[in-house]
Amino acid sequence: MKLPRDTNPAGNAEVAGDSGRGRVRQPSRQQAQPGHSRTAGDAHHGNGRRKETGRKDARPEGGAKRGGGDQAPIYAALDLGTNNCRLLIARPTRRGFQVVDAFSRIIRLGEGVAQSGRLSEAAIERTLDALKVCAQKMVRNQVTRSRLVATEACRAASNGAAFISQVKRDIGMDLEILSREAEAQLAVAGCASLIDEACDHALVFDIGGGSSELIWLDIAKRRANWDNSLVERLDATDCISAWTSLPVGVVSLAERFGGRHVGPDDFEDMVRWVSSLLKPFEEEHNFAERIAEGRVHFLGTSGTVTTVAGIQLRLPRYDRRRVDGCWLACTDVRKVTNNLLDQTYEQRVAEPCIGRDRADLVLAGCAILEALMRAWPTKRLRVADRGLREGMLATMMAADGFRTLPPQPGGRRPRS
């Protein structure tokens, strides 16, 4: 089965693999591991492994149709990061898109890369196992178009390109190594509908495993209602006034300073380190002064902010429907962080929205978030359990002509 890939991720970004056509070979029964799959509607388990939950757009409905009346095709977006392998499969609808299937697994592909400069054999094996599940899901759901990307771990590792070739040889997946600029643009496109258009500026940030993308938006440049259609959400990328990719994420920061046993002094060391990385960007653009008198908010699309939100909401288990789109006061974010600093590693493991997979990374993420809040003081933060994958889906669907999505009469826009 051949899966055409998107050629222009955010209207103007140049990325690797522009002219290629992706394909996924049918995995053998030995390769497929359905017992490990995590599909839409699954719950978040107490061990902290966050399954894809609540990802349906709305009640089941017919797929969107273009002029010829054909059934809407099935799209897939795969984000292979430093810490996670995540897949989203969806079809376009009148309201955006409806998730057909999903998968998420912590694979820690970038484990040790900051020290060795290479992807380890153990991390590669974990990742190949996860990618085989993704390939099986794409075949089973008859995906007709896809975008499959790898981010910071493969950008940074000296054997990143060799790993991409191995994935193609062993599994039949054509992964592209996404540029930092394209990653930032797609993150904005994926969560644009959550930006408060009454504000003057918004900082969209994605705290990853190996890097953190920061994107300042000048909302005065907005031309479209980002809540109306897929193509209008892409207008948000034209409002980018400055962006940067910090060479630090939760995995690399925890490896540098330690993640299991973190005291207040250790935490402050983390914050100071991240602040030193932020300083050149702030000195160049002077956003602290620019936002001082205006209306501004943060929009976080990362596991750090969704975890903090789940804890603040006192969820007995992670629930995307409660978290995605919720607002947090920055004072409450700091309360959650201080409470986590008072806990032992085992107590963090016992937190239902953290679990063992994230217990050694969560405070590193909180330190990056704290550095952002110190650099650019703001009162509120919105949480997005969406981002890069949704941005890829939106750009592919819009490019294929799924552009006009009338608002639902008298109803609330479903989460997409």
Detailed description of the structure:
- With 416 residues, the protein is of the alpha/beta class.
- It is built from 15 helices and 13 strands.
- The chain has helices spanning 113-116, 121-140, 152-156, 160-171, 180-191, 230-233, 250-257, 264-285, 287-290, 303-312, 320-323, 330-341, 345-350, 362-375, 388-399, and strands at 2-4, 21-23, 75-80, 84-93, 96-106, 145-150, 176-177, 201-207, 212-218, 240-246, 296-300, 327-329, 380-383.
- The chain has a six-stranded mixed beta sheet with strand order 10-9-8-11-13-12, sandwiched between helices. The chain has a five-stranded mixed beta sheet with strand order 5-4-3-6-7.
Condensed summary:
The protein has 416 residues and is of the alpha/beta class. The protein has helices at 113-116, 121-140, 152-156, 160-171, 180-191, 230-233, 250-257, 264-285, 287-290, 303-312, 320-323, 330-341, 345-350, 362-375, 388-399, and strands at residues 2-4, 21-23, 75-80, 84-93, 96-106, 145-150, 176-177, 201-207, 212-218, 240-246, 296-300, 327-329, 380-383. The chain is globular, with a radius of gyration of 20 Å.
